[in-house]
């Protein structure tokens, strides 16, 4: 610890006007605070940080560089330099940009989700009830008939459920059927033989092993396969979670049983 020194240092601006600076000595470090009109060097921004000047303590070897607080660059702080009377530049301080009070924060836009009813309000379309049959044209009868052409995902005409598989038929006619097959974790459907039908499958999600007649395939999400008439197939789930497949069944003509014909002819 040494004596406290107070001295004044004068810098000269570009217009040869002196700028008074007070130099205070506390312990072994010095700090300088600019006084007077420092607008030329600080761009009309007041100095908010003190500069730690090189030590002037006798017989003490210290660095000659001017130390200053680390810049908060993310706030836009920068070092401001000024000209020495003898030439060259010296650190004049740190400029901290002030927030513009006139600048308003950008408001977030409220996005309203578009629902089915909201999307239809602007269209001049009359909607029918999905639970009722649809009036369509039958070219064979040459007239309009009512058919079950539309069905929602929550409604199904045929349902099968056991410990391995769940089968939903959302559309079921005399010509074709369409629906969803859910294989439970690490289960298999079991071998099934199709006679006159053709069944096409689409793997919505999951990883499965499909066996068609004598050949097995590894399929995953996005893959397709179909079972031609007169063949058997099996599906095995490889995951410890459900695998979901969509299917379309094209129904063929059912074979006529001979003994039923004989019974009808004898009667």
TrEMBL record:
Domain Mif2/CENP-C cupin: 167-249
Native organism: Chelydra serpentina
UniProt subcellular location: Nucleus
One MF annotation (Gene Ontology) recorded for this entry: centromeric DNA binding
Keyword Nucleus assigned: yes
Family assignment from sequence similarity: Belongs to the CENP-C/MIF2 family.
GO cellular component entries: kinetochore; nucleus; pericentric heterochromatin
GN (gene name): CENPC
Subunit structure and binding partners: Oligomer. Component of the CENPA-NAC complex, at least composed of CENPA, CENPC, CENPH, CENPM, CENPN, CENPT and CENPU. The CENPA-NAC complex interacts with the CENPA-CAD complex, composed of CENPI, CENPK, CENPL, CENPO, CENPP, CENPQ, CENPR and CENPS. Binds to DAXX. Interacts with DNMT3B. Interacts directly with CENPA. Identified in a centromere complex containing histones H2A, H2B and H4, and at least CENPA, CENPB, CENPC, CENPT, CENPN, HJURP, SUPT16H, SSRP1 and RSF1. Interacts with MEIKIN.
Source taxon at top rank: Eukaryota
GO biological process: attachment of mitotic spindle microtubules to kinetochore; kinetochore assembly; spindle attachment to meiosis I kinetochore
Protein keywords: DNA-binding, Nucleus
Gene3D superfamilies in the cross-refs: Jelly Rolls
Function recorded in the entry: Component of the CENPA-NAC (nucleosome-associated) complex, a complex that plays a central role in assembly of kinetochore proteins, mitotic progression and chromosome segregation. The CENPA-NAC complex recruits the CENPA-CAD (nucleosome distal) complex and may be involved in incorporation of newly synthesized CENPA into centromeres. CENPC recruits DNA methylation and DNMT3B to both centromeric and pericentromeric satellite repeats and regulates the histone code in these regions.
Entries under InterPro entries matching the protein: CENP-C/Mif2/cnp3, Mif2/CENP-C_cupin, RmlC-like_jellyroll, RmlC_Cupin_sf
Protein name in the entry: Centromere protein C
PANTHER family: CENTROMERE PROTEIN C (PTHR16684)
Principal localisation: nucleus
